[in-house]
Each structure stands twice: as C-alpha cells, then as structure tokens.
Write a structure and sequence with these properties.
Layout (H helix, E strand, L loop, with lengths): L1 H16 L2 H4 L4 H13 L3 H24 L16 H5 L3 H10 L2 E6 L2 E6 L2 H8 L5 E3 L5 H5 L9 H12 L4 H5 L2 H18 L5 E2 L1 H17 L5 H10 L1 H6 L13 H28 L7 H18 L12 H32 L1 H14 L10 H5 L2 H13 L8 E3 L3 E2 L5 E2 L4 E4 L2 H4 L21 H4 L17 H18 E5 L8 E4 L1 E4 L4 E6 L6
Parallel strand pairs: 2-8
Antiparallel strand pairs: 1-2, 3-5, 4-12, 5-8, 6-7, 9-12, 10-11
The chain binds protoporphyrin IX containing FE.
Protoporphyrin IX containing FE (HEM) binds next to helix 17 and helix 23.
C-alpha cells in the first residue's frame, strides 16, 4: 500500500512542480497531454493501483459530502462495499442501533447512500413528500412485477389509479368477502388441529399458507381453485426471496430471481384466467363476492353510466385481464409478508397471555349471543371491540413493516440543515414512533386496553405509522383489522393454543418483515367453544 501511495503522490508531486507560468501552458489540451504522458509512464499495474486508490479516496470523500451533519460512521470502514455483508443478513439490533443513534442517520453501501429517519415527524415528512420521494424498489422488481404495473406509477398518475382501487377495500366492500374468508379460516383451523395433534410444531409456514389462502379467496373468490391457492401459497416465498433488498439485478436461470419471476408469472396467469371468468359472471348480473367482482362491476357500472350520458367523465375504465392480474399480484405481494408477520406475532402473543385469550373468548361468545356457530359478517366483526384492540396492540408492539424504503427524486431538504442528495435511498422508520413512551406508556409492554376510546394512545394519531401515511398509505389496512379480528376470535373459540416458548421466541428475525426467531412452535388443541 505504501508503494501505491508513493507512486500516486509521487506522480502528483511531479505534476505540481511544473512551472506552468514559465512554460505558458495554461490551456486544457496541454494539461490533458501532460496527464496522459504521466499515466503512460506508469506500468499497467501501477496505473491500476493508482485508479483504485483514486476510487477509494473518492468513495470516502463522496460519503463525507453526502453525510453532512447527520449521524453515521465517521468514514466507510469497509471501503466501497460499506456494511454490505451485514445487509445480507440484517439484524433487528442493527436497525435499533441506527434509530438510537439520532433522528437522521446514514450508511453507504457501494454507490448507494442511505438516509434513515427514526424521528416521528421526519418519518411523516418523508412519507408525505411525493414531490421529493417515491417508493424505492429493487432493480429486479420491475422485471418480476412487470414494468407497466401500477405500483411503479408516480405522482398524479399514481393518485388517479389509486382512486380506482380504494373502493375495493372499504368496509362495505370487504363485508362481501367475509363469507368466502370464513370458509378458509374453518378449513385451516381444522388442519392446524390435525397437524399439531401430537404436540407443538413450527407454524411459520402454516401461517404463511393460511394468509395466502385468505388473501386469494378475498381477491379471487371461487374463481381460483384449491390447488391453485395451494401452489401459489407454497411457492410464494420464492418471490419474497427474489425481491430482497440485496439481490442480483439481472435474472439468470436457476437463481433466486429466476425462480421468483417464474412464480410471479404463474400466479399472474392464474389471476388473468380468474378475471376472465369474473367478467362473464358479473356481466350476467352476479353480485360481487370478491375483489375481482367488485372491480369488474365498477368497470361495467361506469361504462353503462358513460353510455347513458356520453358527455360525462368515465369513472373507471375497462381494464384487461392482464392488467387486472398484475394489480391482484401486487395486492398479494403487498399483503403476504406483512400479514404472515402479524399472524405469527398475534398467535404467539395470545398463546403466552391466558388472560388476554380468556377475554377474547368471552367477547367472541357474547357477540354471537352464546351461539358459536353464528356465521361471520362485517357487522359481527364490528362488535368485537376487545379482540380488535388486541390486533391493534400487536401491530403496535410488533409492527410487521419496521421501515419503508423511498428514493429521492431530487435533492430533498429533510431538515433546515440537511439535504438528502438526489438518488439516495431515504427510509422513514415506523418502529420507533410505535415505541415512543410519550405516546404509549410502557411501550415495551403489551397492553390492549391502551386502545380504549379517548385514551392517550388513541389520541396520538400521528404516531400510528403501522400502515404508512401519505399517497402510498396501505390499501389493505381495513382488510387487515377485519380479517385478523375475525381469525383470532375463531381460533380462540375453538382451540387452546399451546406455545412452546424458547429463548428465541421473543427475539426478532428480519425477513422482509419481522418474525419470532424460532418460527413459532405451536399446538392447536380442540376445545369446547361454549366453555368459558
Ligand atoms: C399487517 C399487514 C399489513 C401491513 C403492516 C401493511 C403495511 C403497509 C405499509 C407500511 C405500506 C407502505 C405505505 C407508505 O409507503 O406510506 C403499505 C403499502 C401497501 N399495502 Fe399494505 N400492509 C399490510 C397488509 C396489506 C394487505 C392485506 C394489502 C391488500 C390489498 C395491502 C396492500 C398494500 C398496497 C397495495 C400498498 C401500496 C399502496 C400504494 O403504493 O399506493 N397491504 N402497506
């Protein structure tokens, strides 16, 4: 290294010693010639080492320039790559250390400069600044989700498209999907009893499967077959793996991204076929029972209104089966990991707290007037106030999405003193706001009662960043509250949940979202739903 520096500084010193004035060589051509001559005089390996040295110095300088006054390592400890190796196996403790280091902190990985906001108001500002930021997706996402997919729209185009989707996830629309979802719940809850009859087993994969089943029934109703649901549920983790933040941007056969793309293509083909069937059924007057029906009905209704009144504005245009299938895939993509995370924590938390489980059971029987066989409806779920608070507290205590990556479209003045450079990744964090002692007393304790109406937690609405905020706020948040309230209620009515607690149960594993490190070892033991 010493010889490298000598060679580098030696050549630069020679260059400086030239008396330009005397030789009257101010012009650019002459200087360029000089540099080329100097470089020519180097052997190839000296040249290579010189270039590498320049790159290393530039890497550190550009890091300093981007970092400015915010928290972060004083210099890049690992030149060029930065903490790349850590990012291959992200640790929750690493994120926590970053949040604790200051309201804004940074890291630099290869050429990517990353700014992390831990402060509530700065995080909100980022979420709500579509002028400066847009959601950041890994390069390969456009290939897997397809470049024309709506999730890549930005600004007004995104807002307009979103307007057409919001109606599919309102409470009123969701009520129509509940009966199909209840069938999925019943089927899987029986299966859970069966597969764990000999004692607690790992439930991580089982819960991912039921989540996929619930979503796909809500999205595609009975147009999708059991086998198709099973196939997509089994293979979906390949998409998650392909879309990890650190992944190779080119799709090479038999690599993670290739398997991910194949799975996505297979799922979209299935959804396109479901859409074609739904179009026929809805055209024949079928009432909506799933997202596909509701969307297609909105298209037909708009078309009919427009034809009756040609001067009017077309509300919802007709979408092709391909476009619909891509959008449905994004719903699955957005929901699958976060819902699976919530499912794991929710089942773990209620299993470990018999008092909470008991209160849920009492409420479940009460809202059904003592008849556990009463079918689920939106109105019934509305009455499950305590169960709903348990779901909400789980989302606060263990928020599935701990931070959301955005990218700066232009230099972004996040604070008076700090401008995040254009092209940097800017990450508003969710977790710290949800564990802020000023909003939530004893934030590291699980207290469902903190959500009673008028309470401090309920009043601190600005801290509730579980589903983001701003133009990209989660489309499925009402769906999440309804589905999980109904699911945990039914599960507890009909089962004793036995959790095998291990030293890793409360440790947090990061795999896109967060999970208990031991993957949740659980048993579903049948119980008489009438016994309280
Ligand atoms: C526990 C479950 C879930 C959590 C914690 C969650 C959380 C989030 C978060 C944090 C965002 C980013 C918001 C932002 O950038 O401001 C988001 C976006 C989104 N979520 Fe969810 N989500 C969940 C389930 C679902 C489900 C079930 C759906 C089903 C439709 C869904 C659909 C979406 C969509 C489509 C977006 C992108 C919206 C856009 O870009 O306009 N999510 N979600």
């Amino acid at each position: 290294m010493a010889s490298v520096l000598q060679s580098l500084t030696g050549n630069l010193t020679n260059f400086n010693n030239i008396n330009y004035k005397d030789q009257n060589i101010y012009n650019f051509d002459t200087i360029s010639t000089l540099i080329i001559d100097q470089l020519k005089s180097l052997s190839w390996w000296k040249l290579l080492i010189t270039l590498i040295s320049i790159l290393l110095v530039w890497d550190q300088i550009s890091y300093q320039l981007n970092k400015g006054s915010i928290e972060g390592p004083t210099y890049k400890i690992w030149p060029i790559i930065g903490p790349f190796l850590d990012s291959l196996d992200p640790k929750f403790s690493g994120y926590k250390a970053k949040w604790d280091s200051g309201p804004l902190s940074c890291v630099s990985i290869f050429h990517k400069f990353v700014v992390i906001a831990s402060d509530r108001d700065l995080s909100r500002k980022i979420f709500q600044s579509p002028k400066y930021v847009k959601p950041c997706v890994v390069d390969v996402a456009k290939k897997i989700l397809r470049p024309e997919n709506w999730v890549f729209l930005d600004g007004k185009e995104h807002v307009d498209y979103r307007k057409g989707l919001n109606g599919l996830f309102t409470k009123q629309a969701l009520n129509n999907y509940v009966p199909a979802q209840e069938k999925v719940m019943d089927k899987y809850l029986s299966k859970f009893q069966e597969i764990s009859k000999d004692g607690p087993i790992i439930f991580f994969h089982e819960l991912r499967e039921i989540m996929c089943g619930l979503s796909l029934r809500a999205f595609c109703g009975d147009y999708i077959t059991e086998e198709q649901v099973k196939k997509i549920a089994d293979d979906y983790y390949l998409v998650t793996a392909a879309l990890e933040l650190v992944n190779f941007p080119i799709i090479i056969p038999y690599t993670k991204t290739w398997y991910g793309q194949r799975t996505a293509d297979m799922a979209m083909k299935t959804f396109a076929a479901c859409s074609a069937k739904a179009k026929i059924r809805v055209a024949n007057g079928g009432e909506p029972t799933c997202v596909l029906d509701a969307w297609i009905k909105a298209m037909y209704d708009s078309k009919a209104q427009f034809e009756a009144n040609p001067g009017s504005k077309l509300g919802v245009r007709m979408f092709s089966d391909k476009e619909i299938s891509e959008a449905i895939f994004t719903f699955l993509f957005a929901s699958q990991d976060a819902s699976s995370s919530l499912a794991c924590w929710l089942f773990q938390i209620v299993s470990d707290r018999p008092d909470v489980a008991q209160k849920i059971r009492e409420e479940q029987l009460n809202v059904r007037n003592g008849d556990p066989t009463i079918p689920l409806t939106g109105d019934l779920i509305d009455k499950m106030t305590y169960t709903n608070m348990v779901v909400k507290e789980t989302l606060r205590y263990r928020p599935p999405v701990i931070m959301v990556p955005y990218v700066a479209k232009q230099s972004f003045p996040i604070t008076e003193n700090y401008n995040a450079p254009k092209g940097s990744m800017i990450i508003p964090s969710v977790y710290p706001s949800l564990h802020d002692p000023e909003a939530y007393e004893n934030p590291d304790e699980f207290i469902p009662e903190r959500w009673v109406e008028g309470s401090q937690a309920n009043e601190n609405k600005k801290n509730w960043l579980v589903f983001g905020t701003g133009p990209h706020v989660c489309l499925g948040q009402t769906y999440v509250m309804m589905t999980f309230t109904a699911l945990i209620g039914k599960a507890l009515l009909y089962n004793d949940l036995i959790h095998k607690i291990t030293p890793l149960s409360e440790e947090i594993k990061v795999f896109a979202t967060i999970f208990p490190q031991d993957d949740l070892i659980l048993q579903f033991k049948p119980r008489d739903p009438l016994s309280v």
